[in-house]
């Protein structure tokens, strides 16, 4: 199997050559046509001469609320994906909340363009998404088998419309956050699970899909979206720590949370922070330690699921022609700035793990590009030789995965939403040095070069007035961006004014 990490143009040329070869060999017919920016291919998987469709497969594994540094406690995932592929060390979820993040992955667009700004309310949930605008249709229309297993967008239920483009649909519908009592669509055969562990069920259904797709012989795109390590919510509304699989209940009992070593943990003075941090009480170290243990325990089943996925792909003879992508929908704060949770614009909530293994990707490689989840759908399209069918807001990472230098944006949009009103809360930008955002009256500006822990808010510092003005111009443009305008290189920012020298007479 040749290494397929090529551009869309190159992939389509190869498909055209394969089409002509098949027509010549057996008098059959294959058609490839383009319409409205899409590519539609109808292909036979294998003809009597033994010629096969050799386009790559892609499997996308997603966790829920996983911190970037949680990956240090997933040795199987690190060994099989990071060590055998590329790790992006500065990946973020630019809208760090479950449903908006997943909508970005479903559409390749920011919330101002896909309409999903929160988990619920008039601007949130599955109901805010156009189910026909789902990137899976790009792959289906290009002749791929497509499968989804696990947690979709918040609010998706058993009576909701099946999103377009999935040839296999096995989504959670009831008890989505319960871990042991839940329902799945079962690809048209709904099933209620009582007493089963959700990660193991998603693992089993994912591997079953791989076997079925491999047996069919067509290339496939499969999403396996896990619940762990999200906190548990029972059907009655109770909330608690994520339960562990039975074999993991004694692990990490004395594990020291990495957050304890962050200077911002339980920050002594949050009076200069934005409003969502300013009035928080000190956190309990014991409660943070207990939550950290439960989260790491829950992730062990995901770690094993990654291992069994790789094993299944290998057993089916398709591992070498499959891209495997691993990430999380958002990060999670564990007491930094006294905050526990997500949906805030701090690096703990923004940062996510991102690993990619597959044909043409150098084992053990890394990239420090400031990538986001919005970049993944268009990257998947490039890797599989398919075409997006609408304007997307991300940049394909395929050149970087091939080991090439790649021009990239220098400023990234970050934002959070509200359930009501105009749907927006704080919206801002992130550069290699600054983190800036505002809701119009309350804001923050961190100089991460001098203050990597984001403990000093420079929003009212006169020395940063020119910096803030320049960042506000970028923010104003990016909150309305679409397509290429979301991926600009704005150029250098002004330097902050130097600190005044002390008065020798004082």
Give the tally of structural domains. Answer: 2
- Anisotropy-based shape: globular
The chain-level structural class is alpha/beta
**Low-confidence runs (pLDDT<50, min 5 residues)?**
1-51
The count of helical stretches stands at 12
Percentage of β-strand residues? 15-25%
- Overall number of strands: 20
Given this structure, which CATH class of the largest domain is correct? Alpha Beta
Mean pLDDT reading: 90
Short descriptors:
10-stranded mixed β-sheet, 18% strand, Alkaline Phosphatase, subunit A, 506 residues, alpha/beta, globular, disordered N terminus, Arylsulfatase, C-terminal domain
What does this structure look like?
It is a single chain. With 506 residues, the chain is α/β, with parallel strands linked by helices. It folds into two domains: 57-401, Alkaline Phosphatase, subunit A; 412-486, Arylsulfatase, C-terminal domain (2-Layer Sandwich), CATH 3.30.1120. 26% of the residues lie in helices and 18% in strands. The protein contains twelve helices and 20 strands. The protein has helices spanning 8-26, 75-82, 98-107, 111-114, 136-141, 198-216, 275-278, 285-315, 347-350, 375-384, 398-401, 465-478, and strands at 31-35, 38-42, 57-63, 86-88, 145-150, 168-174, 181-184, 191-194, 220-225, 232-233, 239-240, 322-328, 333-334, 340-341, 354-357, 365-367, 412-417, 424-430, 434-438, 443-447. A ten-stranded mixed β-sheet has the order 8-7-6-5-9-3-12-15-4-16, with helices on both faces. Strand 19 (434-438) and strand 20 form a beta hairpin.
């Amino acid at each position: 199997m040749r290494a397929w990490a090529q551009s869309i143009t190159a992939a389509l040329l190869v498909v055209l050559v394969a089409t002509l070869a098949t027509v010549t060999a057996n008098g059959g017919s294959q058609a490839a046509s383009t319409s409205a920016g899409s590519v539609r291919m109808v292909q036979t998987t294998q003809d009597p001469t033994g010629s096969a469709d050799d386009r790559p497969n892609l499997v996308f594994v997603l966790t829920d609320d996983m911190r970037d540094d949680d990956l240090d406690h997933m040795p199987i995932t690190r060994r099989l994906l990071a060590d055998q592929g590329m790790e992006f060390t500065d990946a973020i979820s630019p809208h760090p909340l479950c449903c908006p993040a997943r909508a970005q992955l479903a559409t390749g667009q920011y919330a101002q363009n896909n309409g999903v700004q929160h988990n619920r309310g008039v601007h949130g949930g599955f109901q805010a998404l156009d189910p026909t605008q789902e990137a899976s249709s790009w792959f289906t229309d290009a002749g791929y088998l497509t499968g989804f297993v696990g947690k979709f967008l918040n609010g998706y239920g058993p009576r909701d419309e099946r999103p377009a483009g999935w040839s296999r649909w096995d989504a959670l519908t009831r008890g989505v956050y319960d871990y042991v009592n839940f329902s799945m669509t079962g690809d048209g055969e709904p099933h209620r699970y009582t007493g089963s562990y959700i990660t193991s069920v998603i693992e089993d259904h994912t591997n079953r899909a791989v076997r079925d797709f491999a047996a069919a012989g067509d290339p496939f795109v499969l999403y396996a979206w896990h619940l762990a390590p999200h906190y548990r919510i029972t059907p009655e509304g109770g909330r608690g720590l994520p339960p562990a699989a039975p074999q993991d209940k004694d692990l990490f009992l004395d594990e020291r949370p990495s957050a304890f070593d962050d200077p911002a943990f339980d920050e002594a003075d949050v009076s200069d922070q934005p409003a969502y941090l300013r009035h928080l009480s000190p956190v309990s170290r014991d409660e943070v330690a207990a939550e950290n243990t439960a989260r790491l325990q829950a992730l062990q089943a995901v770690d094993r699921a990654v291992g069994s996925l790789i094993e299944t792909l290998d057993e089916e003879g398709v591992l070498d022609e499959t891209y495997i992508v691993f990430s999380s929908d958002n990060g999670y704060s564990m007491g930094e700035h006294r905050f526990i949770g997500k949906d805030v614009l701090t690096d703990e909530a923004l940062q996510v793990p991102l690993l990619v293994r597959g044909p043409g990707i150098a084992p053990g490689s890394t990239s420090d590009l400031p990538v986001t989840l919005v970049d993944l759908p268009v990257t998947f399209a490039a890797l599989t030789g398919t075409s997006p069918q609408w304007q997307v807001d991300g940049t394909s990472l395929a050149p970087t995965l091939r080991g090439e230098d790649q021009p990239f944006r220098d400023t990234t949009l970050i934002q959070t939403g509200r359930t009501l009103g105009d749907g927006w809360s704080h919206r801002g930008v992130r550069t290699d040095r600054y983190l800036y955002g505002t809701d119009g009256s309350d804001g923050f500006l961190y100089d991460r070069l001098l203050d990597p822990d984001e403990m000093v808010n420079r929003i009212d510092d006169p020395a940063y007035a020119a910096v803030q003005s320049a960042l506000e111009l970028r923010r104003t443009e990016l909150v309305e961006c679409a397509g290429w305008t979301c991926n600009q290189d704005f150029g250098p920012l002004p330097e902050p004014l130097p600190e005044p020298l002390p008065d020798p007479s004082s």
